[in-house]
Amino acid sequence: MIAMDKAAQLPDEQRIVMTAVGLTSPNGNDLESYRQSLLSGCSGVQPYEIRYVGQTLAGVCDFPATQYQSRKDARRGTRAGSVGIWAANEAVSRSGLHWENVDKSRVGIYIGVTEHGNVETENEIYQIKGFDYDTQYWSHHHNPRTVANNPAGEVALNLGVTGPHYTIGAACAAGNAGIIQGVQMLRLGECDLALAGGVSESIHTFGIFASFKSQGALAHHADPTKACRPFDRDRNGIVVSEGACLYILERLSDARRRGAEIIAEIVSYAINTDATDFVLPNPERQAQCVEMALQRAGVSADAIDIVSTHATGTTSGDAQECQALRKVFGDCKETHFNNTKSFIGHTMGAAGALELAGNLPSLQDRVCHATINLDHLDADCELPGLVDNQPREVNRVRYILNNSFGMLGINSVLIVRPVA
Description:
CATH topology of the largest domain: Peroxisomal Thiolase, Chain A, domain 1
Number of strands: 15
Number of helices: 14
Distance between the termini: 9 Å
Number of domains: 2
Oligomer: single chain
CATH architecture of the largest domain: 3-Layer(aba) Sandwich
Shape: globular
Helix content: 25-40%
């Protein structure tokens, strides 16, 4: 029996639900294959070579980009646009909507990104270097490729959406932030249908790899599939990955009216800021963000059955998040913790949305996927109920809490559950 939280007491016009999800990840291009990879312990991390940095590791997506866009549009656009277009079309195709009859002026597109434009700028500079930096060889496609609204704009062009579209820059909290923006706009009546989530093309910019490497935060391991190892004593950094995950969000009243299959209801959310450091997390503020989401939901910490952790595999970041989680969930005996990055690496702007997606089937099958590569648990990362290496059947899954944090101290939390 699901507790009567605050969301359940709202009128159906204010309750927001997920009715479809489209995604591409390093280990699956739809929710079914992605979930199976998570349950079977299949990593999507592989060897990867990037300009100037050389041989490294990454999570790379492999999907038929031209299924939903022409080769010309793919060349003219961006990788972020391509992964977004794939995810958006997959979500629409799985939604049960008669897309041709949907009022496109009442559709909003809200896509979270960590960064955008670096790939295209690096590529153009690399090209004109061969022409003695003569700018006549600079692509006239550069401006539309690099404007901040590009990923959402490419999706809007592809789907013929004439409602609002924009990207939400929220560092690695962006996947959650895109969903939160969709929830807010639906409640405000600014749209009747939202495509919301996050995308990342980060593996195509050498600057991200170079920066993490100079920081000593780029993961390495002889076996690529074991490189991303959150909470492990021998973790040594981040595996950079690409990906996309977009949801169809609707008001519960609209979803019920059309007989839609409802995946989950968004019960609560919270965003706050550390305001303490450019990159080092603040566990006190992270704990406050989780507590704020719980308070808004009207549920206690022990009502949460699965916590999807943000942990990236860095020494300080993982320990700081665990400190925050112990503060909130230290006495919760039925709460389970897992991590999806251990399978796919850090998909940056898509991370929050993709990691939530990997846990959503737990609402039905009551299986919590594991954190893999956890051979020697770091004492600073001990958590009650941490699911290590093998998936675990759990007694109940009423609520899932999804953590997603980012640089400049941005923290985000989402709480979802089945519809009561």
